[in-house]
Specification:
heterodimer; A: elongated
Chain lengths: ~140, ~60
């Protein structure tokens, strides 16, 4: 190994780490974008459509979209799950004009759909981050 | 507009979406992916319906 190669290795590593961080944040903000930046088109489409479907179903069925500093610890946990869907959290907020209705089973299911969309997107963003780091195929 | 669905439809929609994402994230060859999605969907439905029946005696 030449001196140049030895000197270039840490720089390549830090560039890869930077790209991985961008991929992770992009994947969180826009579902599937983290995979799209790495040309994993199938995974990108699957994540975008799945998170989008869950958010649209959840908002259409009038699930509870938690807000920052809601009533209790469970509501805060709900907010953390909901915000996991990134920009789609705002989409859900804008779609649900009449507010939540958890007096029916649909509203209860819809609350879970919205939380699942967020958690699923966080999982996908983490997967994209790991793939960018070269730790996942 | 409020969307109305039955318990089964909600469970099926949820299981399908989650299975597809799990399949895409964890498998790469298309056939492996398809098998994983089908198996995951089947298990989601089996466990969901199973738990439903387990709770049935206590619902009245």
């Amino acid at each position: 190994m030449t001196d140049e190669t030895i000197a270039a290795a840490p720089q390549t590593d830090s560039r890869r780490d930077g790209f991985a961080a961008v991929v992770g944040v992009a994947g969180w903000l826009v579902p599937g974008l983290g995979h799209a930046l790495q040309k994993m088109w199938g995974r990108a489409a699957a994540c975008f459509l799945a998170v989008g479907a869950l958010v649209i179903l959840g908002a259409s069925m009038r699930g509870n979209i938690f807000a920052w500093r809601d009533a209790d610890a469970f509501a805060t946990l709900g907010y953390v799950a909901d915000i996991g869907s990134g920009s789609f959290y705002l989409l859900a907020k804008s779609m649900e004009k009449n507010g939540p209705d958890v007096s029916r089973s649909e509203g209860d299911y819809a609350t879970r759909f919205l939380a699942a969309a967020g958690v699923l997107n966080l999982l996908a963003a983490l997967h994209a981050y790991e793939a960018a780091k070269g730790r996942k195929a | 507009m409020t969307l109305h669905v039955t318990h089964f439809q909600a469970m099926f929609a949820f299981a399908t979406v989650i299975s597809v994402v799990f399949g895409f994230l964890s498998r790469r060859p298309p056939l492996e992916r398809l098998k994983y999605i089908a198996w995951s969907l089947f298990l989601f439905l089996l466990v969901g319906i199973g738990i439903g029946w387990l709770m049935y005696p206590f619902s009245r």
